[in-house]
User: What shape does this take?
Amino acid sequence: MSPRISLVVNGTQRSLEADPEMPLLWALRDALTLKGTKYGCGVGLCGICTVLVDGVPNHACMVPLRKVAGCQVTTIEGLAALSPRPALLDAWIEHQVPQCGYCQPGQIMTAAALLQKNPSPTDREIDAALSGVLCRCGTYQRVRRAIRTAADGPRHAPATAARGKVASAAEDAVALDEWIGIRPDNTVVVTINHSEMGQGVATSLAMLVAEELEVDLSQVRTVFAPAHERYANPLFGTQATGGSTSIRGEWERLRRVGASARARLIEAATQSWGAKRGQCRAEHGAVVHRPSGRRLAYAELAAAAKRLPPPSRLKLKSAREFRLIGKSTPRLDVPDMVAGVTEYSIDVTRPGMLVALIERCPTVGGRTVSFDAAGALAVPGVRDVVGLERGVAIVAEDFWSATKGRERVKVDWDDGPNAELDTTTIYRELEAALQSTGTAVRRRGQPARALRQSSTVVSAQYRTPYLAHCVMEPPACIADVRGNGCDLWVGTQDQTETQAAAAALTGLPKRAIAVHTTFLGGGFGRRLETDFVEEAVRLSMHLRRPVQVVWTRADDLRHDRYRPAHCALLRAGLDRDGSPLVWWQRLAGPSSSLEQGSVPYAIPHLHEEHVERPSVLPIAFWRGVGAVQNAFVIESFVDELAAHAGRDPLDYRLALTDDPRRSRVLTRVAEASGWGGPLQAGRHRGIAVYESFGTCVAQVAEVSVGPDRGIRVHRVACAIDCGQPVNPDGIRAQVEGGIALGLSAALKEEIRVERGRVTQSNFADYPILTLAEMPELETHIIESAEHPGGVGEPAVPVIAPAVANAVFAATGQRLRSLPLTLR
Assistant: This one.
């Protein structure tokens, strides 16, 4: 029997009968059901599990329960419950710090400890204290601002703090249709058919509805849609979130949903009063009879409006009539994220649920031969050990028991056909592919003849690596499979595929598969995959119990579906003035790495071809997809051409550009960055521009190179033309996050393979950008009334070439492979 350990948690005496070596993290999460403290790495490297122990910040994943006996432990829930409310939380809301929100409890608790110790920290001190807490979404710049604001002293809670908790259910609402419900208190429940992974769609999509429905956003609550074809992404035909399509795809549909509901509510009021249609208007969640001033709230009209048919004609607002769209609007979900009560898939619990960790074959494509479960089954709390084709599942009452059981299971593996695979071989095969003829995908003029006639021919070869998604919330899913149905609780980007995968495994019809979408602790394309869902379904079928599969950080890095590596060969023929007469390029790699690689410049002769090669490692979409790889190639190479011509890189691009959008963003970013003007000693600028997902982005990076040849990015200016902005502050947040992710990949990240095994296992050997490494950012949104473009991804591709071009300006050395490393 385990000893009883007493401690004070958030001011309440708690007593636990538990393994003294259990980390405090799992005592909080599993025994005390305080889910605000998050699991990130398990080895004290990411900091997102930070709590205060007797006022001192500690990584809860590294503190054994025996060491906190008799101590005072404060978690994010305890901090949020203090009265008066800490100024830090209000500052976090005011500056709209969270994106996916998963790392925010760790950020806030660390910041609280800093301010307790040092009420007026400098930026250097903030960076030093907070750089131990990692954020994949790139909220670092806002973290700095929020701490500065909190350090200024108590403030009145901002209006955003009371905008309202995101609804968990709409059972008391009158459903006008499958999108809108009206509650008795006159709040409006909007069904969101896209996944919320930090891009702010739970607010921006609600804004589209609220704009036409004539309600204030403070009246709106949101729920995530079930898996159903009616909620399919119009641009995909399936219910999936990716490709920066949420606003692009729903721009007209959701505004029409709001306008249709408004028309029926007005008609219901008109009939109730016996009034003429033109005498009634909707405003702020009510219908007003203009002649008399009478007023009926939507809640009073909902039942009658539900019975009315949709109007045959709808007139949507013009841009000049917008009240919400185009205005920076606080997100509805941020207050919950700041309080640590947002529920992610790893936080869900179900009655009778078991937790499973899976020991997977370490080699790519390897299989399980046999296993000895005796050691694992001897661990208290372990309930079963289940053999799978490519692994062994240890199923237990809680995460800690499953962890201990996994340490003791013995498995004999068949390493399979890739036992000798290594990174060098992968790159060698891709480079060899560049010497073979590919499939022509675009051709203009007579490129072969133009190359022969050129005064100068410039050639270059580029390479990009495999990358991990490295979402801060490791993959997790709960499956509850029964004879007549299956329920899934999961943070997924693809409800359609999730439902289909479960149906295929269980043999149940799709209508019997219920997908309960949670918030996602980061996505970046990883949660478009269903591997972790299928594992949970298989185990629930076998055990006839709800089972939660949780991946560890090592699982996540070693068994991800990676962004593929690719290579590129380019040649350009220049005339006597250094202008390109011809551009010839060949890209080699898996198909996803070849996407969005067309040359955007007005060059008379052009040849583009693809050599498609499959990936040995499992691959998936990664934020920005092929544009991230090919923007680095194209925007680095055009910079090379400008250097050969002895011309300014900005002027060179403008001379080759016949697209007004590209010219606008280039001109705007040049103005914002002071292009051509003086710089601090040792700093240099680089510029890049690219269009992807319907949006054009230009960036200027200000860079220095240290004596150790380390690259430091100090400042980034960005101009973005994404069409009609919906929530400008949300756009800025996504640009900041995109630049942070792209910069992390450009400077730090690469997945490597030795003897068929991915060598990285945690943030020690797969480092990502820290707060101290985050440059100052400024984002300039081009005014436009055009159809919205994507926002979540287009900033990611541009930062790597901008930095590489700045490094050339600083050193004269061209870096043609990622991550950027100076010799």
